[in-house]
Amino acid sequence: MRAVIYSTVLPAIVRLSAAARSVGIDPVAVITPRAARNPQAAARRDAILASAPEGLDLCFAADKPSLERLTRAYEPELGLCTGYPWLLPPEVLSIPRLGVVNTHPSRLPRLRGPYPFAWAIREGDDEIWLTAHLMDEQFDTGPILAQGSRPMPADTSMDGLGPTLGAIAEEVVPAALRRVLSGDRGDPQTDEGATYAAPFGEDYATLDPARPRAELERQVRAWSWMFASPVVGPVAEFGGRRLRVLAATLDDPGDADAPRLDASDGPLWLTSVEPL
Asked: What digits encode the pLDDT tens for the residues 97-125?
């Protein structure tokens, strides 16, 4: 049984490939968007080129319309998707007879949409979740196949969350694939408890010193996952200057140059900033 993988994230490609092979599915290709003209996208492309699993063709789609042509060329019976910036169109979803299985890092139907990590951090979640579901024509609304969770790591950067998500995926993805292979189409989602992880707005853009410092530190970490927002944040007013805050800590870093923001219950040190 042949499968194609839709992803921009090398660790996810490796995990999906291994999970597919563990249940007798043969992944044959990765179809990923051509890298945007920014360093982060170029680094992801280069990582895929250098280290994708053996035996996979690597296809870089110029645009969304080319996905149908590339997918049909491989005649897959199943699609596997995670970390994809494009909503797969109906004509692509209809090609694999078993559908396309997507993994989404939240406990669906909560935190559908593009920024689940940012909102999980913003809302102070004590667990990180992963859901495998069959894709439909909307973002993250298809039938649920499997879910799993772990305690939220203290380090909520990509390096910190990656191993935890990998451990969950090792359980969730094979379980979801076995369910699909058995002919089970999953459990339909309802809208009860559904939320949407949209870009942050102006209401969350400013670090308000009237709030507790732990909330402000969490606000900084949440914004680190907001990759493409029309709003700039988080912003601190400091010494008559407006600073965009990239990193902050509750512990004194011992750096006299690190701006200190006095919150309602103590200091927050701004360890990485850029002027606005």
From this structure: 999 999 999 999 999 999 999 999 999 99
Cis before residue 39, ω within 30 degrees of 0? Answer: no
CATH of span 202-275? 3.10.25.10
Please report the DSSP string for 148-203 in residue order. Answer: EEEEPPS--SHHHHHHHHHHHHHHHHHHHHHHHHTT---BPP-STT--B-PPP-GG
User: Which residue carries 């970490």 as its tokens?
Assistant: 221
At 15-72, the pLDDT tens digits run 999 999 999 999 999 999 986 667 777 788 888 988 999 999 999 999 999 999 999 9
Radius of gyration of the chain (CA): 20
> What topology does CATH give the domain 2-181?
Rossmann fold (3.40.50)
Structural domain boundaries in the chain:
2-181, 202-275
In terms of phi and psi (left: phi > 0; alpha: psi -120 to 50; beta: otherwise), the region of 142 is beta
Structure tokens, 47: 């990582």
